[in-house]
Write a structure and sequence with these properties.
heterotrimer; A alpha/beta (330); B alpha/beta (332); C mainly alpha (283); A: 330 residues; alpha/beta; eight-stranded mixed sheet; globular; C: 283 residues; mainly alpha; 13 helices; disordered N terminus
């Protein structure tokens, strides 16, 4: 298969939740694609829709709201797919890992049993081969003396080791895509570095696409190939990590990057985007970022800028994108 | 006014875990969590001292000892020359007024059934900071100080965002006009842009109110930004302490080196430059002998396994607790 | 998704209460029960103690909707007047246990230590005995009657409230606002009673509601056994006991007071459930 052929193609994804009789547009017009071996970062603050995106792809969001649009996977549309057929894909072809591994592992079953259960559900391996595969997986994710640890329960593992177990279970069936929802947020930096390394290595070895949701631009910089920045349920900027972080064009991306205290004179005031994100039930009519934007111009408050290609490989949804010189001066 | 406001000397804190029936039969003593293992630290008036380390290293325990939420098993804390755990001082509530603390979780540190106005007024009236008639005016002043609107007075904590709640917590601490503020992961639960607002506020208040701050956090970038000095904690011991800029640009202890390089930089060109740290934090139930870091340290020798290194000045740039600090930093 | 921002208008406490049909029904039943208890004379068609030998054991009719008893007294009026005694039971049978239990539970939960160990043994001792047997034994020692029954119930029952309160206070102390109180230099009394107690008391209040129903049941049982209210006082348990020998010929004698017990119990249960829902901290 061609390196650049996308395995996952999301097109015009909309997710709407309903609360107290009001429609909340959690996702609007989200489009992107992930290729084999590619790591795409989805970055944004709480409520920007990054986690909802993952949940809409894998079919978890449809239980709580309406999902429309297209999620193309191996020539099929996951949005239209029946729950039964979707369950064949969940865990087998597309796997997901979460922020808190303790809550997604069953505390009453041994790690070995949980691994084997996944293998039984998603592979045709015989019993003995499943055990070997389970040991191999724990070994692969860097858990020492894997054969003995199969008999241990989740609480007998530390936070970092639990996340490794979670990854081992997720990857047991050789999925082609990994959805990772803030997989390292609950971990210490030294452990975070180990886990991110592990995910990267496995993505390469297994030729697997990764969709990594995080709020930490540093994690994006150190792990992802491409990045999509989300704000109020929409992608506002998308491109190669190197380009986006070096020369952000959307004013929100610029603001987000500037509030990270890096390369600043110590104890000087940190930049912070003025105002607060809008509530989903009170989105402004034009660009959702307009009320907080320092480069807001006349059309911004009436019309919504579409995500469009402004340079090679870079998409920005803004009527007045930041240029390099402005970016430095602002 | 400069000089040391607080001296922490050889602080130990052990939490007994209780003995299992098997322990009674075999006569084995109960297991003990060694949360702090001889922390010594000075807090200098007007400075911000950053404390960094991985979770479970004892940084929050240290903060809680300082405000007397925990009583140390050994060692002492002297504030203005007085032992804060001395029998007379224990009963002295003035210490609680002069040394205040702010907590990590903005959702649990405020009483959910009291309005902002009641929370602030309570602090003012218990410590008799103002005569009763002047309390409402002072509450209004405090809200202004932390940039909250006056109608916040009549609202309950659940009506505020995380950032606003931390402002209320700051206002409550400032109500009693303290000299020292302990900020335990004050902004860790907040989004970056909100984090920036709260940190800016804290730095500004420090200038205007002449505060000394102990800033405990796991976000290294943030600690580097706000601190004058930084202490790195590993398994309940300080392994390195020194000027913030020097320590962050050229850490001397192998653990500081690994910790700081693990923080993901915004620069994609720095990929793969991190000093890889193998393994995880050992359990404080089974403290390694000798240097607590030797099991993960790539420079460890036989000496490290047996002898505990002490904090010693290193090349006039702070103190480091490492037997091999000279060799490790020979090229630097 | 929990961090999603909503600009949510908070409806008032009162309006939220009205949206819960169970709570409204509970309030109506208990409200009406209190009215009957306070002004029985205004609702009862006859004097409850007027004897009429010409109308003995009459089945329900327009003149006597609940029928009449062995002495020709109007059963409806007897049931209504019994509200006075039975509702009084609900209050006096619980309120001393509630207050003592809440205070002791809060103190033990806050200080732990030796007091907690002793409390733990008391709990063990009390809950290993069947509750009814314990109360009957105490009434037997003190002598039958309402006041002695209240004393017996309270002496045993505070333990249940204290146990609940202790657990809730310990859970609340996991919140940093309690630690913040210590750091602020507040007195223990202030932290326990101003901060922890208001946050810890909700489950106790809910329990209190169901407990009032249980105490009415218990009081009626004791009345039935002749250990509680004494005839000729109108009390549901006493009324049921009076009718027990005629259950096949004059079923209304026992059935009507029984229904009153069921209805009041239901009212307290609905009220407790509704309050539990309503008092859950928001945000």
């Amino acid at each position: 298969m061609d390196e650049n052929t996308p395995i996952l193609q999301v097109d015009g994804l909309n997710t709407t939740f309903h609360r107290n009789g009001r429609a909340l547009p959690a996702l609007r017009d989200v489009s992107f694609s992930v290729a084999r071996g590619e790591v795409l970062g989805l970055v944004g603050e709480s409520g920007s829709g990054k986690s909802v995106t993952l949940r809409s792809i894998i079919g978890l969001a449809r239980r709580y709201g309406d999902v429309t649009g297209q999620v193309r996977w191996q020539g099929r549309d996951l949005v239209e797919m029946a729950d039964r057929a979707l369950r064949q894909i969940q865990g087998r072809e597309i796997a997901m890992i979460f922020q808190e591994p303790m809550t997604s592992l069953n505390p009453l079953l041994t790690v070995g049993l949980q691994l084997e259960e996944t293998l039984r559900a998603h592979t045709d391996l015989p019993r003995a081969a499943r055990r070997d595969r389970a040991i191999e997986m724990l070994d692969l994710v860097g858990i020492p003396s894997a054969a003995q640890r199969l008999k241990d329960y989740p609480h007998q593992f530390s936070g970092g080791m639990r996340q490794r177990v979670m990854i081992a279970i997720a990857l047991a069936a050789n999925p082609k895509l990994l959805l990772a929802d803030e997989p390292t947020t609950a971990l210490d930096v030294t452990i975070q570095a180990q886990i991110l390394d592990l995910i990267l290595r496995l993505a390469q070895d297994m030729d697997m696409g990764v969709l990594l949701v995080t709020h930490d631009l540093g994690v994006v910089a150190q792990t992802c190939d491409n990045v999509a920045v989300m704000y109020a349920g929409r992608i506002v900027e998308q491109g190669l990590v190197r380009d986006v972080l070096r020369e952000p064009r959307h004013p929100y991306t610029v603001g987000l990057m500037r509030s990270v205290p890096e390369n600043l004179p110590p104890r000087t005031p940190l930049y912070s985007v003025p105002g607060v994100p809008p509530g989903l039930d009170a989105l402004p009519p034009g660009c959702a970022f307009a009320p907080r934007c320092t480069s807001c111009i006349a059309p911004c408050s009436q019309d919504r800028p579409a995500l469009s290609l402004i340079t090679e490989g870079r998409q920005v949804a803004c009527f007045n994108p930041v240029t390099k010189s402005q970016g430095n001066a602002a | 006014m400069t000089g040391t406001v607080m001296e922490i000397r050889d602080l130990h804190l052990r939490f007994p875990m209780g003995r299992s029936p098997a322990d009674y039969v075999t006569g084995r003593p109960g297991r003990v969590v060694n949360a702090l293992n001889g922390v010594s630290l000075d807090l200098i008036r007007g400075e911000t001292l950053g404390v960094v380390g991985e979770s479970g290293c004892g940084k929050s325990t240290l903060a809680r000892c300082i405000v007397r939420l925990y009583t140390p098993s050994e060692g002492e804390i002297r504030f203005d020359g007085q032992d804060v755990f001395g029998t007379e001082q224990r009963a002295d509530r003035a210490y609680n007024r002069r040394v205040q603390m702010m907590f990590q979780d903005p959702y649990s540190s405020l009483n959910p059934r009291m309005t902002t106005g009641q929370i602030l007024a309570e602090a003012l009236s218990v410590h008799k900071m103002r005569p009763d008639a002047k309390i409402p005016a002072r509450v209004a002043e405090l809200l202004e100080l932390v940039r909250l609107s006056q109608d916040a007075q009549h609202k309950l904590p659940h009506e505020f965002s995380g950032g606003q709640r931390q402002r209320i917590a700051i206002a409550r601490a400032l109500a009693v006009e303290p000299e020292v503020l302990i900020a335990d992961e004050l902004v860790s639960a907040l989004d970056v842009s909100v984090q920036a607002q709260v940190v800016n506020l804290l730095l500004e208040l420090q200038e205007t109110l002449d505060l000394t701050i102990l800033f405990v956090a796991h976000d290294l970038r943030l600690v580097r930004h706000v601190s004058n000095r930084v202490a790195v904690i590993y398994l309940g011991r300080i392994v390195e302490v020194g000027d913030s800029e020097t320590l962050f640009s050229a850490p001397a202890h192998p653990y500081s080196q690994a910790l700081l390089s693990a923080a993901p930089s915004l620069n994609p060109d720095e990929r793969g430059k991190a000093v890889k740290l193998e393994g995880e934090l050992p359990s404080p139930l089974n403290m390694p002998s000798g240097c607590p870091f030797h099991v993960r340290c790539r420079h460890a020798t036989e000496t490290c396994k047996t002898t505990l290194p002490v904090l010693l000045p290193f090349k006039g740039r702070g103190e480091v607790a490492c037997h091999h600090v000279e060799e490790i930093n020979a090229n630097a | 998704m929990s961090d999603m921002t909503f600009t949510n208008s908070q409806p008032s406490f009162f309006r939220m209460a009205l949206r819960k049909p169970g709570l409204v029904a509970g309030l109506l039943i208990i409200g009406f029960s209190i009215l009957l208890a306070v002004f029985p004379g205004a609702f009862a068609p006859y004097d409850p103690n007027t004897i009429d030998y010409n109308a003995i054991r009459q089945p329900p009719s327009w003149a006597h909707p609940f029928g009449t008893d062995l002495l020709g007294r109007d059963s409806l009026s007897r049931v209504i007047w019994a509200y006075q005694v039975n509702m009084q039971m609900a209050v006096f049978g619980t309120v001393f246990a509630l207050v003592t239990g809440v205070i002791i539970g809060a103190l033990v939960g806050y200080y732990r230590g030796i007091a907690d160990l002793i409390f733990g043994r008391i709990v063990d001792a009390v809950i290993t005995f069947p509750f009814l047997v314990l109360v009957i034994a105490m009434v037997a020692v003190l002598g039958p009657g309402l006041v002695n029954m209240y004393i017996a119930i309270s002496v045993v029952y505070w333990v249940y409230y204290a146990r609940l309160m202790r657990a809730e206070v310990i859970a609340q102390m996991g919140n940093d606002y309690a630690a913040a109180g210590v750091v602020m230099g507040y007195s223990d009394r202030r932290i326990i009673f101003r901060h922890l107690l208001p946050n810890a008391i909700t489950p106790v209040i809910v329990y209190w509601m169901t407990d009032m129903a249980l105490v009415i049941l218990l009081g009626s049982s004791l009345g039935y056994l002749g250990l509680g209210a004494q005839p000729p006082q109108a009390e549901w348990g006493v009324l049921i006991a009076e009718g027990r020998n005629f259950i096949s010929t004059a079923w209304w004698l026992s059935l009507m007071p029984g229904l009153a017990i069921v209805l009041t119990g239901l009212g307290f249960s609905l009220l407790g459930d509704g309050l539990a829902d309503l008092l859950r901290p928001r945000g």
